[in-house]
C-alpha cells in the first residue's frame, strides 16, 4: 500500500464527493436509471464512494474487490432473472467497476463491461462526472435491453436512487 494512495483517500476525496455529486446531479442520474429501465427488464444500481477508509483502506482493498462487496451488500445479485448490474465509482482512484450478475454477464462478457468502464473513466479524467455516469448508465441499459427486453407486468426489483458512500 502506497503513501500516495493513503493520502489521496484520507485527505482529498471525501469533501470533493459532495461538490461533484450534488443533489441535482444525483437526481439526474436517478432519472437516467429510471429512463434506462423502461427499455429493459434488467436492474441497475449506481454507487459512488469518495474514498476508502477504515479496514478497506488499510487492507489496500482494490476497487474491483470493493465493488464485489457492495454488489453483495446491496443484494444486486438477488434479482429474479440474475440480471442485476452495479456501476461502482471509487472517486479517489478514479476507477469504475461494473459488476454484473451471472445471467447478464454470460450474455455480455467482461470485454464489453470493460469498454464501458474505460469510456466513463475518460470522461472523469476530463472532469465530466455527470456526463460520464449518465452515458455509462445509457450504455449498460443498451446491453440490458438487447438481452432482457421489457415485459408487461415487470417490477422494479431494486431502488433507482444512486448510493453515495
From TrEMBL:
Superkingdom, taxonomy of origin: Bacteria
Residue span, TPM domain: 19-141
InterPro entries: TPM_dom
A Pfam family it matches: TPM_phosphatase
Protein name: TPM domain-containing protein
Lineage: Bacteria, Pseudomonadati, Pseudomonadota, Alphaproteobacteria, Hyphomicrobiales
Amino acid at each position: 500500500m502506497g503513501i500516495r494512495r493513503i493520502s489521496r483517500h484520507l485527505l482529498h476525496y471525501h469533501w470533493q464527493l459532495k461538490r461533484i455529486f450534488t443533489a441535482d446531479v444525483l437526481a439526474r442520474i436517478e432519472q437516467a436509471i429510471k429512463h434506462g429501465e423502461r427499455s429493459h427488464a434488467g436492474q441497475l444500481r449506481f454507487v459512488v464512494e469518495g474514498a476508502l477508509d477504515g479496514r478497506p483502506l488499510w487492507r489496500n482493498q482494490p476497487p474491483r474487490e470493493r465493488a464485489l462487496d457492495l454488489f453483495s451488500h446491496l443484494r444486486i445479485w438477488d434479482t429474479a432473472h440474475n440480471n442485476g448490474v452495479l456501476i461502482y465509482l471509487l472517486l479517489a482512484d478514479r476507477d469504475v467497476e461494473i459488476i454484473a450478475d451471472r445471467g447478464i454477464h454470460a450474455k455480455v462478457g467482461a470485454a464489453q463491461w470493460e469498454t464501458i468502464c474505460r469510456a466513463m473513466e475518460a470522461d472523469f479524467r476530463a472532469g465530466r462526472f455527470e456526463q460520464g455516469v449518465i452515458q455509462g448508465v445509457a450504455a449498460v441499459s443498451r446491453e440490458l435491453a438487447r438481452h432482457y427486453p421489457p415485459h408487461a407486468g415487470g417490477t422494479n426489483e431494486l431502488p433507482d436512487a444512486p448510493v453515495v458512500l
